[in-house]
């Protein structure tokens, strides 16, 4: 039987113990696209690959080593479902998400002043990715660094991946954009003549062409790039509202992970 004096000591020790000893583990569900985006995430699959899952995936997984009392479950889904899942708080975070002001309705980006509508803090990015124009060799479509050029027919036959921020950017230029389900589909539509050009992420499109058969040699990449975008881990309204300190810690930790491990991780995927 515990004496009264020992009970008092135990109570005092309990009160003085650091909070992390008693803190519950926060379970986080973070989603990313089920389409490959080398080297940031690998495999056209709903599976989170156990080996070589991708640079961005490993960066997010490393958050568990930087932040106490969090446990991360990663899931993969079509990008549109990632966005809607963030909006409904089904997911606590999604990546890789470039900045669009419309997306503030569904979640948060890291900002310089820590407010929801503040200027996005590029130092908290996961990475930067370029978009370029890929076109049929027989197309008049081109990009001169300022504007798209080509016949009226060619300018009406431009594609981009469905749900990606580049679609809105192109429409703001007054262009008609056919949204297609992913890079491989866009490339096939170019090959079949159903598109004259497509604005695609370099990392994905270049990887596709490097492995494609000879038929795709008729597809050319235009220079310079159309856009260069930063990509972030977006967090849900629910997570930020319930634990704003954790949200800021996640973004700070990702920046540290990128600085410390980013180059090492990228080299791991050079093959």
What would your notes on this structure say?
- Helix content is 35%, strand content 24%.
- The chain has 271 residues and is of the alpha/beta class.
- The protein has 2 domains: 24-127 and 231-268, Periplasmic binding protein-like II (D-Maltodextrin-Binding Protein, domain 2, 3-Layer(aba) Sandwich); 128-228, Periplasmic binding protein-like II (D-Maltodextrin-Binding Protein, domain 2).
- β6 (142-143) and β7 form a beta hairpin.
- It starts with a helix and ends with a helix.
- It comes from Marinospirillum celere.
Largest sheet: number of strands, sense, barrel closure: 10 strands, mixed
Total number of helices: 10
Average pLDDT level? 92
Radius of gyration: 23 Å
Q: Which outline best applies?
A: globular
Query: Order of SSEs, N→C?
Result: HEHHEHEEEEEHEHEHEHEEHH
Helix and strand composition category: alpha/beta
The overall strand count is 12
Give the full name of the CATH homologous superfamily of the largest domain: Periplasmic binding protein-like II
Helix content: 25-40%
The CATH first-level class of the largest domain comes to: Alpha Beta
Low-confidence stretches: 6-17
The CATH topology of the largest domain turns out to be D-Maltodextrin-Binding Protein, domain 2
Into which percentage range does the β-strand content fall?
15-25%
Total tally of structural domains: 2
CATH architecture of the largest domain: 3-Layer(aba) Sandwich
Distance between the termini: 66 Å
Protein name: Amino acid ABC transporter substrate-binding protein, PAAT family
């Amino acid at each position: 039987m515990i004496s009264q004096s020992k009970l008092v000591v135990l109570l005092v020790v309990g009160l003085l113990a650091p909070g992390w000893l008693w803190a519950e583990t926060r379970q986080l569900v973070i989603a990313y696209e089920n389409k490959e985006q080398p080297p940031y995430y690998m495999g056209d699959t709903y599976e989170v690959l156990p080996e070589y899952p991708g640079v961005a995936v490993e960066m997010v997984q490393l958050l568990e080593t930087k932040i106490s009392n969090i446990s991360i479950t990663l899931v993969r889904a079509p990008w549109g479902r990632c966005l809607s899942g963030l909006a409904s708080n089904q997911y606590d975070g999604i990546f890789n998400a470039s900045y669009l002001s419309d997306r503030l309705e569904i979640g948060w980006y890291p900002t310089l002043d820590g407010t929801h509508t503040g200027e996005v803090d590029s130092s908290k990015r996961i990475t930067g990715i370029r978009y370029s124009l890929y076109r049929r060799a027989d197309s008049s479509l081109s990009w001169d660094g300022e504007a798209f050029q080509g016949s009226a027919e060619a300018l009406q036959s431009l594609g981009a991946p469905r749900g990606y921020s580049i679609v809105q950017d192109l429409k703001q230029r007054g262009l008609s954009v056919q949204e297609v389900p992913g890079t491989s589909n866009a490339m096939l539509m170019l090959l079949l003549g159903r598109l004259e050009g497509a604005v695609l992420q370099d990392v994905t499109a270049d990887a596709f062409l490097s492995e494609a058969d000879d038929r795709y040699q008729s597809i050319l990449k235009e220079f310079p790039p159309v856009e260069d975008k930063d990509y972030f881990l977006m967090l849900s309204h629910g997570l930020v509202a319930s634990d704003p300190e954790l949200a800021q810690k996640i973004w700070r930790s990702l920046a540290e992970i990128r600085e410390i491990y980013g180059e090492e991780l990228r080299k791991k995927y050079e093959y």
